[in-house]
Amino acid sequence: MDVILSGTTDAVTRHHRLPPPDFGLAGRDGLRYQVVTLGASGVRSRGRSLANGAFRDDAGLTERTTPRAAPAVIPVRAPEPARSAPRAYRLPVPERSSVVLMGTSVYTDPRVPSLPAVAANLAELRAALTGLFGEAVRTLAEPALTDLADIARSARSGSDTFVFYYAGHGFIGSDGRLYLGLRETDTDMPAFTALPYERIAQIIRDSPARDKVVILDCCFSGRALKGTMSPTPLATADTAGTWVLTASSSTAMAFAPVGERLTAFTGALVEILRQGVDNGEPVIRVGDLFAPLADLLASRALPVPQQRTSRSASDLALAPNPLGPEHLPRGEPS
Questions:
Q1: Which of 32, 84, 92, 147 falls 20 to 30 Å from 201 in CA-CA distance?
Q2: pLDDT tens digits for range 170-191
Q3: Whole-angstrom Cα distance, residue 192 to residue 206?
Q4: Strands in the chain per DSSP E
């Protein structure tokens, strides 16, 4: 590091670089300082010793002026601390993973409005997740109760990752439980005509997958995060290696703005997956999503999402990161 001697005149300040001295003083701010005196004849004897012979006895500064005497304070700063190492991420292994994207857009009950944006939700989310999960991603549009066994088989088919997504209407039954709307759902009897989320919770708990992801884009979806008014809590989010993300709280509505191609929640989620996050990594992890998603929805005066996650699940990579390095390794079977 060079040492800078500053001489101040009435008109101009001159700076001259000298080799670093061997001694200094500690200031109140924790920095170390060297003090030398500048006079009309240049750097005096101490300045010469600081310069280690850089000036002759009769030599002044390179440019002689008529300065007013003033000490020059030269800070010697400590090096900046090294940046912390980036957080680890885990790539899914497509051959041992399963992703089920389920959505209901049309309902036979005339009291239940259709949700045309759901079809686009499924298509856009499939495109985003295929980058890391490949052929493990499949879409289940307009499901029926008979599809529940197929979902369970998918959850049990792999030991690496299981992802379940639902978009549609959510209902609260007379038992206080959450029900996911199906085409034939009768709003007077959701317990018999809709998909009980408790069944999905059981599928998640029984899955051998290392990490499980549940994303719910429906009204009252926050009930998946905690117990309901029923005696038995859903407890999905308490399962190790599980991340549950919901579009709303347990009592709030989710939104599908008229004229928009996607629903509000999934639209914001897809927007972040498309644009990327500034984490310096080639992938977007589970733990990278919630904060920007909540901020984006809040900025649009939309319901704030809810989440619950375990530490292990937060490191799972969901999609390539458009803002990250170009090189992207692939998860390999071990």
A1: 92
A2: 999 999 999 999 999 999 999 9
A3: 23
A4: 3-8, 13-18, 25-26, 32-39, 42-43, 70-76, 97-103, 137-141, 161-167, 170-172, 178-180, 195-196, 211-217, 242-246, 283-285, 306-309, 317-320
Which pLDDT score, from 0 to 100, does residue 30 have?
A: 46
Answer for the pair 265, 286: CB distance below 8 angstroms, yes or no: no
CA distances from 163 to 129, 185, 216, 262 (A): 10, 24, 11, 20
Q: How confident is the model at residue 324 (pLDDT cuts 50, 70, 90)?
A: confident
- Residue located via tokens 């990594």: 281
Q: Is 185 exposed, middle or buried (0-12, 13-18, 19+ CB in 10 A)?
A: buried
Q: How far is CA 105 from CA 78, 120, 167, in A?
A: 62, 10, 8
Candidates 3.40.50.300, 3.40.630.30, 3.40.50.1460, 3.40.50.1240; correct CATH number of 94-320?
A: 3.40.50.1460
Alpha-carbon gap, residue 232 to 202, rounded angstroms: 12
Q: Which amino acid is at 4?
A: I
CB atoms within 10 A of CB 14: 16
Residues 126 and 167: their CA atoms lie apart, in Å, by: 13
Q: Report helix, strand and coil shares of the chain as percent, to nearest 5.
A: 30, 25, 45
Where along the chain do the CATH 3.40.50.1460 domains lie? Answer: 94-320
- What three-state secondary structure class fits 243? strand
> What is the enclosing helix (H) or strand (E) of 203?
helix 197-206
Query: What's the mean pLDDT in 148-166?
Result: 97
